[in-house]
Amino acid sequence: MYQNTPDKKLKIGLFGFGVVGAALYHVLQNKSSLNAEIKKVCIKHIDKKRNGPESLFTDDAAALLSDPDINVIVELIDDSDAAFEIVRTALKSGKAVVSANKKMVAEHLKELLELQSKYKVPLLYESACCASIPVIRNLEEYYDNDLLQSISGIVNGSTNYILTKVREHNTSFQQALVEAREAGFAESNPYMDVEGVDAVNKLSILIAHAYGIIGTPGDLVYSGIQRLENGDSQFANEKGLVIKLVAQARKLSNGEVTALVLPQFVRSDSQLFSVKDEYNGVVIESSLADKQFFCGKGAGGFPTASAVLSDLSALRYDYKYEYKKLQQNAATKLSDDYYLRVYVSFPSLPLIPHKVFEQIDEWSSNEHRCYVTGVIHCSKLLKDWWKRKGTSLILLPDPILEQYQKSTINKADAVQEFASMAP
């Protein structure tokens, strides 16, 4: 049973001994000030050689979850369904939990809130979002008011690493992905990274702490970097922009919130422009403090282990998430009633569904590729025309508009000509 006292020792049951679990074990072996030790580690393949005494490891989950001497469970496995069962059992057993499993938290947050409330034990998961950046703790403590305007950032170190390699080293997408996995930056299933699943899981967690919105990743519009083409990078270079996978949420004037994860062209005057490799960067904007920027390593064993370690340390002070925004803003909800400034590229002009655009500002076509920039309503992204093979949709800088005004660039004859060539 987890009970906090100033001199209490944390007896940890660790699930998973991959890159992060091994890093955490190494750190705790050399950090006596925390007064914590890993008593047992549950692993999937018991015969695999690992850097630790053989007696430390077991493949029996009950050996950890039923041990009354273990008062903290640290969950660091890939399987989100199995992770939820571990966490649920631990909370019911009165054990505090630290988890890095963003998919598990995002998909089961409502149930996890109920379990924490019912059994009076904390669940901390700073390491599930942005690794070494303490963004959840800041949203919980520093921005625990109604003045938060927006949060946006690069929250997936793997895709940022890939995009940096492609842009600065002319590395192919596939080779960059291989290097990301070899470096321990990518998920064991790279689909989670490159298709934006990891980022949207993190954003759904962040909006719970930023705006008190409890939803699921399926409630948000999202995509990753899997459909980007060479022509998109060429467009970015010509305009002095870089492409980043950006997760963002913004409060509208009516109090509702937008939230989405999409590739975005980023200008050189943005704090996110220079965030490279496996680093994450998060910009938080409030109505009084303007913008604050957090940057740190967002992938890798030790950066993620540092967040796990911070959560373990916080348990010694009886820290728990209070979900203040959830209590204050029970009526806050997500909205899809807004406009987006977008760039969309296609293999050929006839494939462009010009009717989805409220306004067309620029278009170009050649024998290799064509693109259009303009304004669309967010609801148009609820259909999958933009997820077809060969189609890239990238947000332009400052993409979110509550209303829009027609651009002077939008000449009537050019729009008419474009419309006559498109279906």
Topology of this structure?
Elements: E1 10-15, H1 19-29, E2 36-42, E3 57-58, H2 62-65, E4 72-75, H3 80-92, E5 96-99, H4 102-119, E6 123-124, H5 135-141, E7 148-154, H6 157-169, H7 173-182, H8 191-194, H9 197-211, E8 221-222, H10 230-239, E9 242-251, E10 257-266, E11 279-286, E12 290-297, H11 301-315, H12 324-328, E13 339-346, E14 357-365, E15 370-377, E16 392-401, H13 412-421
Parallel strand pairs: 1-2, 1-4, 2-3, 4-5, 5-6, 8-10
Antiparallel strand pairs: 7-9, 7-11, 9-10, 11-12, 13-15, 13-16, 14-15
Helix pairs in contact: 1-11, 3-4, 4-9, 6-7
How would you briefly describe this protein structure?
By secondary structure, the protein is α/β, with parallel strands linked by helices. Helix content is 32%, strand content 25%. Helix 6 packs across helix 7 (173-182).
Separation, N- and C-terminal Cα atoms: 65 Å
Radius of gyration: 23 Å
**How does CATH name the architecture of the domain at 135-298?**
2-Layer Sandwich
What is the fold named in CATH at topology level of the domain at 135-298? Dihydrodipicolinate Reductase, domain 2
Helix-strand string = EHEEHEHEHEHEHHHHEHEEEEHHEEEEH
**What's the overall geometry?**
globular
Biggest sheet details = 6 strands, parallel
**Residue ranges: pLDDT <50 for 5 or more in a row?**
408-415
Read across the widest sheet, the strand sequence of neighbours is: 3-2-1-4-5-6
The CATH superfamily title of the domain at 135-298: Dihydrodipicolinate Reductase, domain 2
Beta-strand content bin: 15-25%
Would you tell me the overall average pLDDT? 89
CATH class descriptor name of the domain at 135-298 = Alpha Beta
* Strand elements, count: 16
How many separate helices?
Answer: 13
Q: Class by helix and strand content?
A: alpha/beta
